[in-house]
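Entry 14: structure prediction run for DNA helicase UvrD. Input pasted below.
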Amino acid sequence: MKFVADLHLHSKYSRAVSQDMTLENIAKYAQLKGIKVVATGDFTHPFWFDQLKTELVDAGNGLYRLKTNDQRLSQKARALDVSPSVLDEKKVYFLLSCEISSIYSQGGKGRRIHNLFFFPSLASVSKFNKKLVDKKANLRSDGRPIVGISSRDLAQIALLCDEKVLIIPAHIWTPWFSLYGAFSGFDSIEECFGDMAKHIYGIETGLSSDPAMNWQIEDLENRAILSFSDSHSLLKMGREATVFEAEEVSYDAVYRAIAGPVSREAPFSRASRATRNDAKIAFTIEFHPEEGKYHYTGHRDCNFSQSPEETVKDGDICAVCGRKLTIGVMHRVEQLKSQNSKVRTEVRNGVRWVYPDGNGRPPYVSLVPLSEILSEALESGVTSKKVLDQYLVLVSTFASEFNVLLKADIEQIANLASPKIAQGIEKVRAGDIVVEPGYDGKFGVVKIWNQQNPDKNEKNEAEEKQLNLFA
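Run finished. Output tokens:
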């Protein structure tokens, strides 16, 4: 079976995060989106950890369930006089997760690295939190705590708490806070993690890069390419996600898919996979990387940006103010790549899928969140009542947002909503859109019909400023 997982988000206890990010709301929106396994986020925060212990129940598979959801499903099953297993597709599982910001010096340079940690039990999380407190970490300050512990030492601490922990470098290309970051990162995983590098089985691409960009990096050839939303609000959940395929939904299935369903020597060999009946990554769901906040090099205050080719030609000094530009993800990938990506595309149900040419890595599909499509089609803000009402109509009819974006019949969408909304979804499936690249903390602008309402742009940017200060 295939199931969608979004394993990077934040709770209301993280800075610049919506207060609506509670366990009950996260579970509700996971159902709307079509997400089967969702991160708890922020388990290091003592108040949030207390809520995890109180509101979640062990599902017996290394994942957790929301008690109130289980109760509602049981009541619904009794009312319908059916077995509770009939409603299993409605179940949402939580995977215990956190993001930690490490700020430290290494190699004569200041480092600021964000890493994700996934654990299979609350008992292991409790051990990990205690060890961080013993290291003088202030876990009450933020749901994403800042520690003066290196990435290497954090990995060692986590592995001592549970050998099945997953350690995933977060949004690895972000200029300021990531493993390959232009201003505070490293040039390789081994340089960052030292002897712990062998325990880093996968990376998170981040919104400003896609798998094709990461396929060019030799350092990542033996590691899983993962995509998650890093959501700070409910509507942003699932804007990126990873789809796993396994015989069961479990922590172990996620672990096996990431850590290697085949040998570490040839992790993406089609022949090796054919001999194993194991968990794997089926595909990833991507943001268009141009829409990410750091895709191009530039200066937000000066409204100035440039492509990697222009950066090579003109340098990294702002032509407006004369200060150093914020180096974009696309340029940083160009600096570290060992080869050019060779890709091929397939179109199924109008959806454009991208595959690496010549190996068995999972494909990906690039989408625009349904709320953004509706916003442009209806010429209304993404959080307006008009957009939310239409969103709920579509999602309730076709079971989830991902079904609307990837599977629903276009004619049925047109009959239910409007021809323009159906056309927008069809254009997004085909990749027939234009995106003005983001830079220096400014999101790129999607133009499905190659025109945009300036007032709506300003309103959406104001909303992003409120909810994404530190995303």
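Notes: The longest helix spans residues 67-80. Will compare against the previous run tomorrow.
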